[in-house]
Structures are given as structure tokens and as C-alpha cells.
Specification:
By secondary structure, this protein is an alpha/beta fold. The protein has 7 helices and 10 strands. A 6-stranded mixed β-sheet has the order 6-7-8-3-9-10, with helices on both faces. Strands 2-1-4-5 form a 4-stranded antiparallel β-sheet, covered by helices on one side. It binds adenosine-5'-diphosphate and magnesium ion. The site of adenosine-5'-diphosphate has 12 residues, from strand 1, strand 2 and helix 1.
Length: 225
């Protein structure tokens, strides 16, 4: 479903160059639950951003769902991203003035889904992630773990092909982090949505069904567990 081939990415800041990815190749199948792990600075965010069509590689191929995303125009890419990809971030990134319900429903409004269907799907997915009864709360009245559940619901409500989660548990304590991973895995099994999540945390690595280790912009190992 995803083919990344010989991808390179160099950041240039003034007269220093950082080779963040030095020829990364990776294939991901439908429905995989995969972790990209490695120390800080190893290139995890850069790789996720390239797969998520948020950033472009300097070299190499990125094919998602048979679409060569590197050859797409920015507006086509925005549509592709909106329809096919879900994102979960380390800092949750919810809209503070919107309720949990509105944060999730907004995605369906952007996709021009009818109000009735949007309501049904939003309520169902919030229940699925364990937030029944909290739909009207704003993020400030939710715990970190609950906010991340809203973010997972927001990523999943459009039935994406792939969810990308960049260090989704980094701002959570280990018990809450594990609960968030449990929900991600349950959703992966129930809907067959592929998940790629990054981490530098050993406990989180242990949770993956496939572990890709990055080191200094290169894949060091790739193991199914
Ligand atoms: N916008 C940027 N400008 C310059 N260097 C960057 C930028 N983003 C990341 N880097 C550098 O690229 C390397 C990989 O970064 P990153 O992908 O964020 O790694 P990770 O997510 O594993 O911590 C690091 O050396 C980092 O300092
Ligand atoms: Mg990072």
C-alpha cells in the first residue's frame, strides 16, 4: 500500500546541511501496525512528514495507494491528504475553542458529508474511543489521555487508509500512554486501518507488530514481531 524508495531529505540552514534521511526504503501493507523508532534526531518526524505528504523528499519515490504523491500538485495533494490520511500528534493539536464533538465533526464537514451522517459518525467514533458523555467538553476540560482519544477519533472518523502518529504518547504518563496505544491497536484490528507511529520509548516499541529502527537517517533494522 505504501512504497518509500531511496528517499533522501537534507535540511539546509545557513551554511550547515543536515542529512536527515540518507536513502530510506520501506514498504507497508494494508492494515499494518508499525512503529518507526529511534533516538531523537534519527529522522522519524521527517520520514512521517514525507509519508504524510506534509513535506517533500529531495530524492526517491513515495507511492501511497498507487498514487505517486511526489508528482501531485499541492492542491491535489491537499485533497488526497484530507480523504486518505489521518494524523495524531504528540501535542494533541485540538482546536481549543471547539468541543470534542466539534473537533471531530469538523473533518466530515470539510469532506462535505451531510449533517445527519456527520452527527452519527462523530457520536459513534467518540463512543468507540471511550468518550461517551464527554462530547461537549472543550480540550481544556479533558485530561491529556482524553485529548489524545479525541485526536484518534478525529483521525479515524473519515475512514482513512492510513493513520500517522508522531510520538503519540510522548506527553502522557506510561499508564495513559498504554491505554492510548490499546485504543489505536483496537481500531487497527476493527477497521483494518494501517497505523504508523513513531517513538523513542522502549515500552511503545514493544507494542508494535513491526518495528523499524532508524539511526542517523538510515534504517538499521526492520523486524516483524
Ligand atoms: N526544519 C529543520 N531544519 C533544519 N534541520 C532540521 C529540521 N527538522 C529536522 N532537522 C534535523 O534533521 C534531523 C532529523 O530530525 P527529525 O526528523 O525531527 O528526527 P526525530 O523526529 O527522530 O527526532 C535532526 O538532526 C534535526 O535536527
Ligand atoms: Mg520527531
Amino acid at each position: 500500500m505504501i512504497q518509500v524508495k531511496d528517499v533522501e531529505r537534507t535540511y539546509v540552514a545557513g551554511d550547515t546541511k543536515v542529512h536527515a534521511l540518507k536513502g530510506v526504503s520501506l514498504s507497508v501493507k494494508e492494515g499494518e501496525f508499525l512503529s518507526i523508532a529511534g533516538p531523537s534526531g534519527s529522522g522519524k518526524t521527517t520520514l512521517l512528514n514525507i509519508i504524510g505528504c506534509i513535506d517533500d523528499a529531495d530524492k526517491g519515490d513515495v507511492i501511497i495507494d498507487q498514487v505517486d504523491v511526489r508528482s501531485k500538485k499541492p492542491d491535489e495533494l491537499a485533497v488526497f491528504r484530507r480523504e486518505k490520511l489521518g494524523f495524531v500528534f504528540q501535542t494533541f493539536n485540538l482546536i481549543p475553542v471547539m468541543s470534542a464533538y466539534e473537533n471531530v465533526e469538523m473533518v466530515l464537514k470539510l469532506l462535505k458529508i451531510s449533517d445527519a451522517e456527520a452527527r452519527e459518525r462523530t457520536m459513534a467514533i467518540l463512543k468507540e474511543v471511550g468518550l461517551e458523555g464527554m462530547e461537549d467538553r472543550r480540550p481544556s476540560r479533558l485530561s491529556g489521555g482524553q485529548q489524545q482519544r479525541v485526536a484518534i477519533a478525529r483521525a479515524l472518523v473519515k475512514n482513512p487508509t492510513l493513520v500517522l502518529a508522531d510520538e503519540p504518547t510522548a506527553n502522557l504518563d506510561s499508564v495513559t500512554g498504554k491505554a492510548v496505544l490499546d485504543i489505536m491497536k483496537a481500531m487497527n484490528k476493527k477497521y483494518g486501518t494501517a497505523f504508523i507511529f513513531s517513538t523513542h520509548d522502549k515500552m511503545v516499541m514493544d507494542f508494535a507488530e513491526r518495528l523499524v529502527m532508524l539511526h542517523d537517517g538510515k534504517i538499521e533494522s526492520d523486524k516483524r514481531r
